[in-house]
Amino acid sequence: MEVRGLTLTVPSAAGPVNILRGIDMDVQSGAAIGIVGPSGSGKTSLLMVLAGLERASGGSVRLAGREITALDEDALARLRRDQVGIVFQAFHLIPTMTALENVAIPLELAGLGDALDRAEASLRAVGLGHRLTHLPGQLSGGEQQRVALARAFAPAPRLLLADEPTGNLDRATGEAVMDLLFELRASHGTTLLLITHDAALAGRCERIVHIADGRIAA
Predict the structure, then answer these.
(1) Residues 58-62: contacts with CB within 8 Å, 24+ apart?
(2) pLDDT digits (tens, 9 = 90+) for 147-165
(3) Domain 2-216 - what CATH class?
């Protein structure tokens, strides 16, 4: 990923708010990058723009050599489906679907005939082979985040974006989930951008980027 001069300005009652103020960043294939900074510094907004979930105000983002900032919504959705996995602090599972169905969704959207088989294998890889038919409400927080990890990794994305993935979990459960995330990332060779407030967690990455006031501070 190559990011150049990335800006994000949003309107407010008090006038325009500059959230990102010219981000330049290179991420090599297979790298693990920790993104840290104080609350309100622009970390999550940066992830949203990189995922194509928020439209940049200026600058460019190239993913695997492709400029994505000018893509329309349909093209961005296909890009996320084919190349990008996302794990949020809130698990964002569909409450009326089983764990198996939640993981199968992106695979079915990609038109894969073996979506359910792949979803089952992905859930077994995160230790939830015994929870395939359970609804999210029947799972613990740690189990729900494992389902989210299985869903993110099942399509074998080139890039995984993780935004405070342990924020809703107790410390022990969070550490177990992060051990699993790094294991999956290593086995898949996935590029990782991890937003976290936990310095020890960021330290597990190969490089740390400090964001402050919408800019890269270090």
Answers:
(1) 58/5, 58/6, 58/7, 59/3, 59/4, 59/5, 59/6, 59/7, 59/22, 59/23, 60/2, 60/3, 60/4, 60/5, 60/6, 61/1, 61/2, 61/3, 61/6, 62/1, 62/2, 62/3
(2) 999 999 999 999 999 999 9
(3) alpha beta
